[in-house]
Amino acid sequence: MSDSDFAKPVTYRGGGFKPVPVAWIGAAFLIALVIIAEIGTRTGIISALTLPRPSAVLETFAELYSSGLLWKHLFPSLSRLAVGAFLGAAVGIAVGVAIGLFSIARSALVPLVAAIFPIPKIALLPLFVIWFGIGEGSKYALIAFGTFTPTVVATYGAVDAVDRGLIRMAQSFNVPWWGIVRKIVLPGALPGILSGLRVSLAIAIILLVAAEMLGATYGIGAYILEAGSLYDLERLFAGVTILSLLGIVVSWAIGRLERRLLAWRG
């Protein structure tokens, strides 16, 4: 064996499982679906009574934008989503961390969370209307409550999943309790918390639409309800597309937050 064989670099195989996103594939797949739908509706393979032409939906978007109705419906929805989801997620993370850290909180709150988690939150909308009125309060409450329960479950599950070996090692070095929580528990639980937020915010968007279909003049949910009552498929699909884009933006924002807060994972 020659010296050149020893000098040959060896491929590093210790990078772990780290999927590399390919951004253009998702966009190309969506564009392909839109093209197929456009061809199908134009040729009559797909009935216009079941699916509108994507180009007609795009024209509806242009009319919404030029008339100013897009912002009149979008801004109230965004404000309701932001306030309700923030309240539900903030309280949910706090309660979830408390359940994960304190035995008394776990014993008291886990049965309560298990009891309210399976309840369909949309079914509670009439109750929230009775409690908070037909205005914005009931909408905020429904979105916050729907965001709260999955956030609690994801948070205390993430806290429980933190490596106990790291905690014992810190205790052996006499690291204070708060230092263990701040430097080991919370960073270790953060990936699970952010993953849970993806689900919680998706539920918040669903509940936003349900809340706006009851007693709202403006909002994406009110717009979809009006379009559905008139059987206006172009406007209906335009509203649904706005919700899909909103979900994509929320997922992108969570992804950016993950890359920023979890850069230490490499």
Structural write-up:
The structure is a single chain. This protein is an all-alpha fold and 266 residues long. It has one domain: Orthogonal Bundle (MetI-like fold), CATH 1.10.3720.10. The protein contains eleven helices and no strands. The two termini are 37 Å apart. The mean pLDDT is 86.
CATH architecture: Orthogonal Bundle
Query: What sequence of helices (H) and strands (E) makes up the elements?
Result: HHHHHHHHHHH
Instruction: Calculate Rg over CA atoms.
Output: 24 Å
**What is the CATH C-level name?**
Mainly Alpha
Number of alpha- plus pi-helical segments: 11
The unreliable regions are: none
- Write the CATH fold name: MetI-like fold
Number of domains: 1
Q: What is the strand tally?
A: 0
Principal-axes geometry comes out as globular
Q: Which strand-content bin applies to the residues? A: under 5%
CATH homologous superfamily caption: MetI-like
Structural class: mainly alpha
Major pleated sheet: none
Mean pLDDT across all amino acids: 86
> Termini separation (Å)?
37 Å
- Helix percentage range: over 70%
Summarize the model shown.
The chain is 77% helix and 0% strand. It is mainly α. The protein has a single domain, classed as MetI-like fold (Orthogonal Bundle).
Features:
mainly alpha, 266 residues, MetI-like fold, globular
Set down the secondary structure blueprint.
Elements: H1 3-7, H2 23-43, H3 54-67, H4 69-101, H5 103-116, H6 125-132, H7 136-160, H8 164-172, H9 177-212, H10 220-229, H11 233-261
Helix pairs in contact: 3-11, 4-5, 4-7, 4-9, 4-10, 6-7, 7-9, 8-9, 9-10, 9-11, 10-11
